[in-house]
Amino acid sequence: MHAVRLTLRLLGLLLVLILAALGSVPSSISEEAEPRAPYASDAATPTALPAHVVNAAAIPLRLIIPAIGVNAFIESVGTQSNGDLATPTHNPWEDAGWYNQGPHPGERGSAVIDGHLDRPGGYPAVFWRLGDLHVGDEALVMNMAGKTLHFRVMRIALYTPQEAPLQDIFGNWGGIYLNLLTCAGDWIPSEHQTTLRLVVYTSLA
Question: Most exposed of 102, 105, 125, 159 (fewest Cβ within 10 Å)?
Answer without folding.
Answer: 159
